[in-house]
Design a protein that fits this description.
Layout (H helix, E strand, L loop, with lengths): L6 E8 L6 H10 L13 E9 L2 E9 L19 E7 L3 H5 L1 H11 L5 E7 L11 H10 L3 E4 L8 H15 L5 E2 L10 H13 L2
Parallel strand pairs: 1-3, 1-4, 4-5, 5-6
Antiparallel strand pairs: 1-7, 2-3
C-alpha cells in the first residue's frame, strides 16, 4: 500500500545503447535475465520497493531510449531526478569514451545536486574486456562519482548499484529526499542552497 515506504527517489539510467541499461532495469525490478536484446524505444518505467539501512524506499526507475538516433534524452526526463546510474560496457570502448558526453548532458539538464553512480557493466565477458576496473575507477574518482562493476547475466552487484545510489541520495538529504507527507507541499531548498554555497568556497 501507500504507507510501506518513507521516501520516493526518481532514478534515471543513462549511457550509450547496448550497454545493458534495459537488462539492469529488468534484473533489478523483475529479476529477469534475457539474452535477446530488444532496444528500448521511448522510455521504460518501473517501480521497486527496497530497504536501505532500515529505511523503506520506493524507487521510480526510468530507462531512457536505447536507440542511437535518440542520442539525447529529452530534457523533461531529467525533471525531479534524484539519482542517475551512468552505464558503460567494459567490452565497448566507445561507450566508455562517451561518458563525458553524458556528463555534459546531465550538467545541462539535471538538478545540479543530482547524485551519480558510474556502472561498468558486462563483467561476465572478461575475455572481451577493453576497459579495466582501474580505468573505470579513475574516471569515477576524477568526476567525484561512486563506481561499481556489474554483471546482469550473473546477477552480480546489480542490486548493490541501486543501493549505492539510494544511499548517496539519502546521505545528501537535500530537497531531493522527498518525504511522503511533504510530497504535495512545497519542498524546501534551503539545504540545497547551503550546499551550493559550500561548493563555491571549495572552488570545484
Amino acid at each position: 500500500g501507500d504507507n510501506d515506504y518513507e521516501f520516493i527517489f526518481k532514478v534515471l539510467l543513462l549511457g550509450n545503447s547496448n550497454v545493458g541499461k534495459s537488462s539492469l532495469f529488468l534484473r533489478f525490478i523483475h529479476d529477469i535475465w534475457n539474452d535477446i536484446f530488444v532496444p528500448t524505444i521511448g522510455v521504460d518505467f518501473g517501480l521497486k520497493n527496497i530497504e536501505i539501512d532500515q529505511k523503506k524506499i520506493k524507487m521510480q526507475i526510468w530507462d531512457n531510449q536505447g536507440q542511437e538516433r535518440f542520442k539525447t534524452v529529452l530534457p523533461h526526463y531529467y525533471r525531479g531526478v534524484h539519482g542517475i546510474l551512468l552505464v558503460y560496457d567494459v567490452t565497448e570502448k566507445d561507450s566508455f569514451n562517451n561518458l563525458n558526453f553524458w556528463l555534459m548532458e546531465i550538467e545541462k539538464n539535471a538538478n545540479k545536486n543530482v547524485l551519480k553512480v558510474l556502472i561498468g557493466n558486462k563483467t561476465d565477458l572478461e575475455d572481451k574486456r577493453v576497459i579495466s576496473y582501474n580505468q573505470g575507477k579513475e574516471f569515477a574518482d576524477m568526476h567525484g562519482l561512486k563506481f561499481v562493476e556489474t554483471s546482469v547475466k550473473k546477477n552480480k552487484n546489480v542490486r548493490e548499484a541501486f543501493e549505492i545510489l539510494g544511499r548517496e541520495i539519502m546521505a545528501a538529504n537535500l530537497d531531493k529526499t522527498i518525504d511522503k507527507q511533504n510530497q504535495n507541499k512545497k519542498i524546501t531548498v534551503s539545504k540545497a542552497q547551503d550546499l551550493n554555497a559550500q561548493k563555491k568556497q571549495k572552488c570545484f
